[in-house]
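Action item from last week, closing it out:
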Amino acid sequence: MKDTLNVLLSRLRMKQLQLLIALDDHTSLHKAAGAMSMTQSAASKALQELESMFEAPLFERSKSGMIPNQFGHCVIRYARLLATDLAALCEDVAEIRSGRGGRLAIGAIMGAIPECVVPALNELHAGQPGLSIEVVEDTSARMLLQLDEGRLDLVIGRAAVAADPSKYHYRPLGDEPLSVVVGYGHPPLLRKEVKLHDLVGHRWVMYPSHMPLHALLEREMDLAGLDMPDNPISTASTFVTVALLQSSADLVSLLPTAIATLFVRQKMLRFVPVKLKSPSQTFGIVTRKGGVLPPAAEQFIGLLRGSKERLEMQLENQGARKQKTA
């Protein structure tokens, strides 16, 4: 390993890593060379030099083009990280010179956005109005891949879904409770508790099978002794889910409670008093081990943890008031 490192430190050039990224994007040496403003023979030579450094082929030649093998995927991932870090370096230097903000890229699961991400972002932006902020909402698994590639600075989600959670720093933030909801046009439910059996006549709007909330609904149906609904409408979009629920009183869905509350307050949805048996899933702040966080990310993490402490204090005060009035 030491010999390989010495070879890379002495012979590796950024242009070679850019070529790898271009090959991954275009799957064609000719197109990648064109994108890099290189001749095809120069691109071929640069690739051969890289494969010589790693003592392994990085791509497989197929009818569909040049496809990275397991070594290629590994090197490309780190090439993207280096390219992203260099781009961030240039941006930070330019921002320092101009006296303006910087850039922060955040990934967040849906249920963490209203009560955790939004308040912290508002506070951060108030203090740094020149800061450029990107927020990605997706599943934890997909956002961790973007974190690995350097596309995100941090993720508010779950590290446990990764193949190797130990390569991340994880700081818990809270739980993501879920609620069953219907459109506001659905007749009000007067009962204090509704069972999943009572919703058999409804059609479900549910998450795609690769998403954790689909598996949770599947578990709830199994615990209730029910089969998964026939002919559901599948979507990962909150907007589509809410629009569908509003359009028909026969539809029902499962949403993170924090998200559902936003639409219930606007009289777009109604809560269905179904007591779910599965425990709420926890989420937290996920960052790469060994990575250097930009100052804006460090500040955002501090605001998130401060918001958590304030929320916990509010809940304690509410509990104390309830005990006094009991």
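Closing note: The chain has a mean pLDDT of 87.
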